[in-house]
Automatic annotation (TrEMBL):
GO MF annotations, alphabetized: catalytic activity
Residues annotated as transmembrane: 20-37, 43-66, 73-92, 98-114, 121-138, 158-180
PAC domain location: 269-322
Organism whose genome encodes this protein: Turneriella parva (strain ATCC BAA-1111 / DSM 21527 / NCTC 11395 / H)
InterPro entries noted in UniProt: Biofilm_reg_signaling, EAL_dom, EAL_sf, GGDEF_dom, Nucleotide_cyclase, PAC, PAS, PAS-assoc_C
Identification of the protein by name: Diguanylate cyclase/phosphodiesterase with PAS/PAC sensor(S)
Keyword Repressor: no
Keyword Oxidoreductase set for record: no
Keyword terms: Membrane, Transmembrane, Transmembrane helix
Length: 756
């Protein structure tokens, strides 16, 4: 029996409560009518016992009707019974069993509800009531008619009954109070343990369970914790699904099956797996499972487990892995994961004897897109090309982003025959070239269809013969060869490239020392008018290499651009030209000579190029009107708006702008009209065959006529014969340079021959 909450009121939420209230109303009304009729019909007067009984009935009924608290109603009943018993005893000449039973019942109620210490006043009242009742009984008119044993008086009988009642009922009340206290303490301890167990379960895991191995489907029997909140299933819903295995992710069921033998062998297993929740979400769980043996300790009959939801932890781990191993823009593997995949591909090749291939892919003219449309457009292109590359390769191959506009593709499990393996790699390269050359719709600011190509270098490998770094270098070299051959191509690595690479690296190392070692020298090739009068010269660079001797620009300019040394070299050449003009300013012949200085693409694209030119002009005092900057046609057409702005700034400084190698690129009259040019230089490839090739002759005539119509100066390069000169003079070309007049010579020799 448990103690009811003393602060809770009885409610009418159950049929028992409604029945109790109805019975109380019926009892109160019925008892009132009964005693009224009894007094009227029989003419019986109310005595003290009647009054006590009626009071108890009324008090109890009113308590039920008006929903007294449980303790208050218990007080009314228990102390009402005590009062009734005491009153009844006072009207009897001797102790009666019925009255003692009423008193005992009242004390039992009191002991149950109010414990022994609060029952002591009731015992004292009963004892006092017995004594008073005995005294009254001794004076009762019927006292002399009561037959008593010899030696006993009625007063002694009542005293004896009172002492016996006190001792016996005190023992009963104390025993009941003790039992109730023990039960209550045990209940509270059980509730507290259950609460602590629940808290501990929630702290250590989301829920715990027990499974009987004899039940199909691993249906859980016991749960503690938030099973329904974690999985979304109730036990009934899980039972209808077919048990626990039915909600485990299909890819992880085999994992649970593998741990079964360990559990049956008595091992405790910790495993992680996924389930499909009732809402369809994938939830990661960490399950610590412990086997439970039967009573004999011979066989495992049950499994107990504690489960924790680790979905958030798995998501965090996945995010960390993505940051560490994947490119945030394209979601492709980054360099770190690429190297790991490449090692795996080499190991697989060693085991199987099959070939593999490494494709180094670089987007052509990607910088132009960034410069003209912005980096957001460039990012869109990279994302789209990453998607297309992924679609081109086979399942199991790797596409990675090395950085910038460079991608790597690892092909594994190619045929063991080298030729067939190369054929499959070539087929994939063709698919990639075709796919990446298709227009890409860029939606940044305005929707634009942008066409882009790529260059691919291929390095084949078999096993661990070639290191990872060497493979990447070989593929990189092959890619640069594809670019050198015209772009939008793929090239396989050739061992000869390794030799060229070594020479290029040595050349780049020597270039770093060339300026500091004063190994460069400017040469001049004269430019003449139609009357063969020298009007100026083109400034050309020569390198006096300590071991190689005289080295021409065609051999080292590419390496200088690759290393960035071209910036310092270009500044030095322009400075030397300015200093030479300052020196010539005092000569009668040389003061009017002009100098044409070539500007490389990388040098011209520098943000501070115009400022550097301005500072050198100020520092040297050279006359800018005597300087022509020669730009290549391809450079002039890259980023046209930016190029035009810089050309205008240079012309404001007083310099002239010449378009070198005109006719070899893809320029149109529309672009030519926009460029603020002063001069066109006809490329020597057209001049060389003007006397033998009608097409070249027509082209040269067209260029001369177009330049005249656009009010541009014209210089023909590469004049080597008298016939070529006569043709150019005949068709109105005003200026020339070439070996027919002079090859490039040192400054001192130029001054001796043409400026003396």
């Amino acid at each position: 029996m448990t103690k009811l909450d003393s602060h809770s009121r009885m409610t009418e939420t159950s049929w028992e409560m409604r029945l109790a209230r109805g019975g109380a109303i019926f009892g109160v009304v019925g008892a009132s009518i009964f005693f009224l009729l009894r007094s009227q019909v029989l003419g019986l007067a109310f005595g003290g016992v009647d009054a006590a009984l009626i009071s108890l009935a009324l008090a109890s009924g009113v308590g039920l009707i008006f929903r007294f608290t449980a303790n208050r109603l218990a007080f009314v009943v228990s102390y009402g019974l005590l009062t009734l018993g005491c009153v009844a005893q006072m009207y009897l000449p001797e102790p009666r069993t019925i009255t003692q039973l009423v008193l005992v019942t009242g004390l039992v109620f009191s002991a149950i509800y109010f414990r022994f210490m609060r029952t002591l006043p009731a015992l004292a009242i009963c004892f006092a009531g017995f004594l008073i009742a005995g005294e009254l009984a001794y004076q009762h008119p019927q006292a002399n008619k009561v037959l008593l044993p010899d030696g006993f008086s009625l007063r002694g009988l009542w005293l004896n009954a009172a002492v016996g009642f006190l001792l016996l009922n005190g023992l009963i009340a104390a025993t009941l109070s003790y039992v109730v206290t023990v039960l209550e303490t045990s209940r509270r301890r059980s509730e507290e343990n259950e609460r602590l167990l629940k808290l501990f379960t929630e702290l250590s895991s989301d829920y715990v369970y027990q499974i009987n191995l004899g039940v199909p489907g691993l249906m859980p029997e016991v749960f503690a914790g938030s099973f329904e909140r974690t999985t979304g299933y109730t036990l009934d819903a899980l039972r209808k699904k077919g048990g626990w295995l039915a909600v485990v992710h299909p890819d992880d069921r085999q994992r649970l099956e593998h741990v079964t033998p360990k559990l049956l062998a008595g091992e405790t297993v910790v495993t992680e797996y996924r389930i499909i929740s009732a809402t369809g979400l994938v939830i990661w769980l960490r399950d610590r499972i412990r086997p439970v043996y039967d009573a004999k300790g011979e066989a495992v009959t049950k499994l107990m487990g504690a489960v924790t939801d680790i979905t958030e932890r798995k998501a965090a781990e996945e995010q960390v892995e993505n940051l560490a191993f994947y490119d945030p823009l394209t979601a492709l593997p980054n360099r770190r994961l690429l190297l790991d995949r490449l090692e795996q591909a080499r190991a697989l090749s060693t085991r199987t004897g099959q070939h593999g291939a490494l494709l180094f892919i670089d987007l052509d003219h990607f910088k132009n897109l960034n410069d003209t449309k912005g980096h957001e457009a460039g990012d869109q292109l990279l994302i789209e090309h990453a998607r297309r590359l992924t679609l081109c390769v086979r399942e199991g191959d790797t596409v990675a982003r090395l950085g910038g506009d460079e991608f790597i593709v690892i092909l594994g499990e190619l045929p063991a025959q080298a030729e067939k393996a190369a054929e499959e790699a070539a087929d994939l390269c063709q698919r990639i070239l075709q796919k990446l050359s298709e227009p890409v719709t860029l939606t940044f600011r305005t929707m634009t269809d942008y066409e882009n190509t790529c260059s691919i270098g291929v390095a084949m490998f078999s096993g661990h013969i070639v290191s990872v770094d060497e493979l990447l270098r070989r593929a990189d070299m092959a890619m640069y060869q594809a670019k050198a051959d015209g772009r939008n191509l793929f090239r396989f690595f050739d061992p000869q490239m390794q030799k060229l690479l070594g020479e290029r690296l040595a050349l780049e190392s020597d270039l770093k020392q060339a300026l500091a070692g004063r190994q460069f020298e400017i040469y001049l090739q004269p430019q003449l008018a139609s009357d063969r009068r020298v009007t100026g010269a083109e400034v050309l660079l020569r390198w006096h290499h300590p071991e190689r001797g005289l080295v021409y620009p065609g051999y080292f300019i590419t390496a200088a651009e690759h290393t960035g040394a071209i910036h310092d070299i270009g500044v030095w050449v322009f400075e030397q030209a300015c200093l030479l003009l300052t020196k010539w300013a005092g000569g009668a012949i040389t003061r009017a000579l002009t100098l044409a200085v070539n500007v490389s693409a990388r040098q011209f694209r520098q943000a501070d190029f115009v400022d550097r030119v301005r500072r050198l002009l100020q520092q040297t005092g050279a006359n800018p009107k005597l300087i022509k900057l020669e730009l290549t046609e391809s450079l002039a057409l890259d980023s046209v708006d930016e190029t035009v702005a810089k050309m205008l700034a240079l012309r404001e400084l007083g310099l002239a702008i010449a378009l070198d190698d005109f006719g070899t690129g893809q320029s149109s009259l529309a672009y030519l009209k926009r460029l603020p040019l002063n001069e066109l230089k006809i490329d020597q490839s057209f001049v060389r065959d003007i006397t033998t090739d009608q097409n070249d002759a027509v082209l040269v005539q067209t260029i001369i006529g177009m330049a005249q119509n656009l009010n541009l100066e014209v210089v023909a390069e590469g004049v080597e014969t008298e016939q070529q000169l006569d043709f150019l003079v005949k068709h109105g070309c005003p200026a020339y340079q070439g070996f027919f007049f002079s090859e490039p010579v040192p400054v001192t020799e130029f001054e001796r021959k043409f400026a003396a």
